[in-house]
Amino acid sequence: MRKILIISTSLHGGSNSELLAKECARGAADAGDEVEFYSLKGRTLQYCIGCLACQAKGKCVLSDDAAFFVEKAKDADILVFATPIYYYEMSGQMKTLLDRLNPLYPTDYKFRKVYMIATAAEEGDFVFEKAYQGLRGFVDCFEKAQLCGLLAGGGMETPNAAKADEGALTRAYDMGKSL
Fold first, then answer.
1. Is residue 116 a contact partner of residue 80, using CB atoms and an 8 Å limit?
2. Which residues 6+ apart lie within 8 Å of 87 measured at CB?
3. Given pLDDT bands bounded at 50, 70 and 90, which one contains residue 156?
4. How far is CA 94 from CA 29, 54, 56, 134, in A?
5. d(CA 130, CA 115)
6. 20 to 30 A from 74, CA-CA: which of 36, 55, 92, 100?
7. How many Å apart are CA 12 and CA 137, to the nearest integer?
């Protein structure tokens, strides 16, 4: 059984990216995987200060919820990040989390596959390209891991729009089943 960590980085209620992430989690659980789902809502993440002390000490000098996510990511086989798209890019919270996962770099992390779920009001593949490439930059730093796919949900202009998008819900569920 694989251990899958899914992190929703949206902070608002009715988040379309979180709705799709939960559907992905349901698909993975139905496929027999162990799934842990967490949201950044209610969590405290400070910005990385770039001191690189985490490389020597094995943990960040800042004290907040990032350490929780470092431990969860270290032990997961597969990572899935869900984000809303703001100005053609991942949410600031997601970027902050990726930066704060830096203590993983020198460790014997387990994850080998990383995926992204992203939603946006606008439609078209170009809407998601920069965010996906941003995640690629993170993954490229982990030589044992690879970026394996994107589930893009465009045209979601209002909160909870994903609930009415059967196609997106099915794709998210199927993604979870096939992780």
1. yes
2. none
3. very high
4. 24, 19, 24, 10
5. 15
6. 92
7. 26
Predicted confidence at residue 159, as pLDDT, reads 94
Q: Given the DSSP bridges, would you call strands 113-119 and 34-39 parallel, antiparallel or unpaired?
A: unpaired
Residue 122 domain boundaries: 3-178
Q: Give the model's pLDDT for residue 46.
A: 98
Residues making up the chain, counted from first to last: 179
Is residue 167 classed exposed, middle or buried when 0-12, 13-18 and 19+ CB atoms within 10 A define those classes? exposed
Q: What share of the chain is helix, strand, coil (3-state, %, to 5)?
A: 40, 20, 40
Residue range 123-143: mean pLDDT, rounded: 97
Q: Which residue has the tokens 């202009």?
A: 157
Q: Which amino acid is at 39?
A: S
Query: Residue 7 sits in a domain of what CATH number?
Result: 3.40.50.360
Q: Number of structural domains, the chain?
A: 1
Alpha helices by DSSP H, listed for 105-161, are: 126-140
